[in-house]
Amino acid sequence: MTDLSADNSRARDALPTESVSRVSDYVALLKPRVMSLVVFTGLVGLWLAPGSIHPLMACVAVGAIAIGAGASGAINMWYDRDIDAIMSRTAGRPLPAGRIAPDDALAFGVLLSIFSVALMTVATNVVAGGLLALTIAFYVFVYTMWLKRRTPQNIVIGGAAGAFPPMIGWAAVTGDVSWASVSLFLLIFVWTPPHFWALSLFFNDDYKRAGVPMLPVVAGVRATKVQMIAYCVALLPVGVLPALTGVVGWAYGGFSLLMGVLFLACALRVWRASEDNVGPARAMFRFSLLYLFLLFVGLVLDRLAFGPGAT
Fold it and tell me: Are the C-beta atoms of 42 and 168 separated by less than 8 Å?
């Protein structure tokens, strides 16, 4: 009797830990680190948009963007669970580690996708809801299922999915798509390839084992470094587009050029490094996150200080 009581006691003590672990696994399915950047850029797009929106509806719109981004991540993890199990940086994710059943992850992602689009549409407008639906579909069907395992241009084209959130935030307020919101889209779209190629340089062996045709695997490290420099050069004028379209003024424009030069300097440092020296690539990857974050902070600060730019 004593042993049975002790076993029951240990089982009861283990339940909270297992419950917390299961919740954390479902949170991990949402790719919270990726979601945080998506939410931030969507929030900035909403804040910069002309017109007004009730604060409660603004919060709901940002929440819908977050849920939609998380839903995309969950479906992506469901589909990629086979290659995630091979790659060292993803082997600990809930699906390859066996902590969540594949069917549960898929159902979770699909239900959240439907809910996020419905919530955005009801809370704001059809355009914002449609853009959110397009973003989820593009990430799941175009990037994850079609491009990722077939072409080294997977990040170039598939990066559009991560570039839509500021357009969604903008549309939540205005109900339309304008050149101003497209300029925010292009900023993230052109930033994405050098950001992910820097990551792929120091996880090149992982991608080779998994058979994912990232650019370093298919074209080689040297060709990848050339492409990274080219995209960083392209970012110099693209980063200025929000000032040209009147989203903000030229204080931001000057700041974006400065940050663009620093980003290009990172790419040149990667170019000069030997192929077995991944330190500069790691540094560039970290700086790329800071680059995008500071540019969107710069958009907000410019608007606060000077108001909309000249159109």
Answer: yes
Instruction: Give the residue carrying structure tokens 């992506």.
Output: 76
- CATH architecture label of 29-177: Orthogonal Bundle (1.10)
Range 178-311: architecture per CATH: Up-down Bundle (1.20)
Q: Residue 29: which residues within 8 A CB-CB, separation 6 or more?
A: 70, 73, 74, 77, 94, 95, 100, 105, 108, 109
Segments of the chain assigned to CATH 1.20.120: 178-311
CB 39 within 8 A of CB 62: yes
Block mean pLDDT (10 aa), the chain, length 311: 42 46 89 92 97 95 97 96 94 94 96 98 98 97 96 93 97 97 97 96 92 95 97 98 95 97 98 93 97 98 86 47
CA distance 129 to 284: 35
The boundaries of every CATH 1.10.357.140 domain in the chain are 29-177
